[in-house]
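Below is a typical protein record.
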Amino acid sequence: MRMDRFIDASFRSVMRLICLTAACVVFSGGLIASLAHADEYPIMAGDELKVDFFDRPPEGAETASLYKRNDLSGNYPVSSGGMITLPILGSLTVEDLTLEDVSKKLQDLSDSVSDDGLVVRTNFGARPPVYVKGKVVAPGAYRYLPNMNVAQLVALASGYSRDAEASTKLPAMTARLDLSENEAKLTTLIVRKARLEALYDDHEKITMPEELISLVGTERAQVLLDKEQAVHTRALTLWREGQALHRTRIEIADANARAFAEVVDVADEQEQAAQARFEKWDAVYQPKYFSVSPKANTARTRDANTYFEIRRKNSEARAQLQKALSEYSAAKSSLAESRITRLNDLSRQIDEITDQIQTTSTLLQKAEGTLRVLKVDDGRQGKKDTGSRVTIQRIADGQAQMIKADEATRVRPGDIIEVAL
């Protein structure tokens, strides 16, 4: 890697570098990453939003995590009117918005409580459950999972009651739940690993993972990758701005060192000339001459004082030159160390996610194997049961709607699914 010429900016530039680095940790570590895995359905009444606010780190901060605004951060339920109410900031209408939209609105509102603005992270704390009733083995409320369809919900309820054997009810329900949860977790891990690999290679674009396409299909994979790309672009921009400040610091340190080197060169010439004038007195005149010539003695003393004063200033200039060279060396080392540290950190995160992907894949295969042994459908293909009738009761615009559905129909948070045979 070719090293640029190195430098030090003023104290203000160095502090700004620390702030940018801390913000980059927050974002590359996942502060906005949660938005990339947000649910496809917008915010609705009954949701609970988990909102975290962070001050932009002040000068001298070592980590952004120390500056979380606990007076603003928290879990905020969405009221029946589609609003959340936050301390200091007041109420905000969030119904039908995405998590990213809410984060942007809160970012704008935060200008009223912070001169430098706040970093905002928004995620779902909880979503309304989905309900299934009728001819299923285990009717009740189930936690909503992104992209859930009727077949998966029926699977979580241990299938249709007419063909469920008592000996397979609990194992089938457990295996189907494991299947759904591990599939969602595996999708998240694959997308995140692709983003970290793009950061490690310093690539502008995230490469589409083939395993993501095989898991969720081309269309869904592209949607997930587009959301992750926004996170990646921001993190890469912050990193490059930080590197630019490092290089500026190196250039300033180099300029300082060159300037002091020129001062030392001039001082050396002056010192040599003054020394020659002083030593010439003793070389040309005998010591006794000074005792009989007060004028010559005064001139010799003056040249001696001039020589020693120039020598003192030259020594000070050399000390300043050494300090400038040390700052230049420190700036170069800081740039190299920041790059090495970043690559090591990204490599560690990629290795950890790779291990998690392998573990999750194993659990997913285990759940699939269990369902094959039990000879029940995994619910992922939306295979129709021609002997069943499915109706979804859904609240939209304050009105209850009755929707005819089949096993491939997607469900939304708060839906009530009724199964008749």
About this structure: The two ends are 68 Å apart (CA to CA). Residues 294-374 form the longest helix (81 residues). Strands lie at 48-55, 74-77, 83-86, 90-93, 118-126, 130-134, 140-142, 389-396, 399-405, 416-420. Residues 1-38, 381-387 have pLDDT under 50 and may be disordered.
